[in-house]
Structure formats: structure tokens, C-alpha cells
């Protein structure tokens, strides 16, 4: 049951981190991207895959 809570909190965190990263990338680029939603989706997808693999690794190590 706690796994649902962990993944929910991780998902909320990933949303805010992805939004922050997208803003940083757009600031470096100098303007907003035309396909901002697609770039956001790619960022959050990559972070979610990395995070889920990390959680699975730690859960198998810790038991």
C-alpha cells in the first residue's frame, strides 16, 4: 500500500522537476518552444524511466 504513496509522491515531484527543467532549457534557448508539450513529455518520460529503475533497484536491494 505504501508503494502507491511513494509512486504518487515521485510522480508529483517529477512533474515539478520536469517543468523546472523545461523552463531552464527555454531560458537558455531564448524563447518558448513551439512544441512545448512534446518536449515536456520527453523530459518527464526519461525521468520517470530512470526513477522507476532506481526504485526497483533499491527495493530489490533493501528487500
Overview of the structural elements:
This protein has 63 residues and is an all-alpha fold. It has one domain (2-62). Helices cover 87% and strands 0% of the residues. The chain has 2 helices and no strands. It has helices at residues 2-29, 36-62. It is elongated, with a radius of gyration of 14 Å. The protein starts with a helix and ends with a helix. The model has no long low-confidence stretch (mean pLDDT 92).
How would you summarize what this structure contains?
Helix content is 87%, strand content 0%.
Fold blueprint:
Elements: H1 2-29, H2 36-62
Mean pLDDT across the residues is 92
Percent of sequence in beta strands: under 5%
Give the C-alpha Rg: 14 Å
Silhouette: elongated
The SS-based structural class is mainly alpha
String of helices and strands: HH
| Number of DSSP-assigned strands | 0
Biggest sheet statistics: none
N/C terminus separation: 16 Å
If helices are DSSP runs of H or I spanning 4 or more residues, what is the number of helices? 2
**Low-pLDDT windows of residues:** none
Number of domains: 1
Determine the fraction of residues in helical runs and give it as a percent range.
over 70%
List keywords for this structure.
63 residues, mainly alpha, 87% helix
